[in-house]
Design goal:
This protein is an alpha/beta fold. The protein has eleven helices and ten strands.
């Protein structure tokens, strides 16, 4: 019988952004094997219907299950908002974690935090997924949201702390200056790249930054420990995409902090 401890963790996103989750998992669990799938042929998911997103997400879930993963991490806010329940059902006994739940759990666990900010893509903000998740824990918490769509292309170009990036961040984040928020959830997997810059932009430097990539990595570590599935002898990292492996390879280093060894193209069905 196969030892599940030595089987990989599956992580997926609509494209490249989920590599911040992969990096956080590698940092938290350096001896785990990881399979990452980026659906680069069909990105972005945010402009597609929920039904289409669910179809894509289930195709990727089936691919990861065929690879024998012991856990699936949904490293995509759009999928987390639209398809989490369907993925959990399809995965059966394989535990499924998602960035929205992880980031929310981290935010609501902070004592006396009654005003929470959320930044994300237009699709994530319009879905109200973070608002609903936070209010499931405590309906009295005030949630202030802001869509920051230009941060995604800036992150992929590596424009993190130059003048264009800083002015863009000011444009988006200045709205929070007088909002009274005590924490700010980075509700897009591209946004952790700006984690060092954002506190310098915010008027209130005491605002707690919630990195949902780090949050889901810690949740994964705790869940694997609970299930006695921690691997102590792995560390392999595999990347799969549905298109444009060269572009993925070029940009991946910004998100991972290192170049991936190789990127394989697979056709989903």
């Amino acid at each position: 019988m196969q030892d599940l401890k030595n089987t990989p963790i599956g992580i997926f996103d609509s494209g490249i952004g989920g590599l911040t989750v992969a990096k956080a998992v590698i940092d938290a669990l350096p001896t785990e094997d990881i399979i990452y799938f980026g659906d680069t042929a069909r990105v972005p998911y945010g402009i597609k219907s929920e039904e289409t997103v669910r179809t894509y997400a289930l195709q990727i879930t089936n691919f990861l299950l065929k690879q024998g993963v012991k856990m699936i991490l949904i490293a995509c806010n759009t999928v987390s908002a639209s398809a989490k329940e369907q993925i959990i059902k399809a995965a059966g006994d394989v535990p499924v974690l998602d960035v929205i739940t992880a980031g929310t759990n981290n935010a609501v666990s902070l004592p006396n935090h009654k005003n929470i900010g959320v930044i994300g893509t237009l699709a994530t903000v319009n879905s109200l997924a973070y608002v609903e998740a936070i209010h499931t824990f405590d309906p009295t918490i005030n949630v202030e949201q802001k869509a920051c769509p230009l941060l995604v292309p800036l992150a992929e170009e590596g424009w993190i702390d130059n003048e264009v990036a800083k002015q863009t961040l000011h444009f988006y984040l200045d709205d929070f200056d007088d909002s009274g928020i005590q924490s700010l959830i980075l509700g897009c997997t591209h946004y952790p790249l700006f984690k060092e810059v954002i506190p310098k932009i915010l008027k209130n430097s005491d605002i707690e930054i919630i990195d949902s990539a780090e949050s889901i990595a810690e949740s994964a570590k705790a869940k694997l420990a609970e299930l006695d599935l921690l691997n102590t002898s792995g560390g392999n990292f595999q990347c799969f995409v549905s298109d444009r492996p060269q572009r993925f390879h070029e940009v991946a280093e910004r998100f991972l902090g290192r170049r991936p060894n190789g990127v394989e193209v697979v056709v989903l069905d």
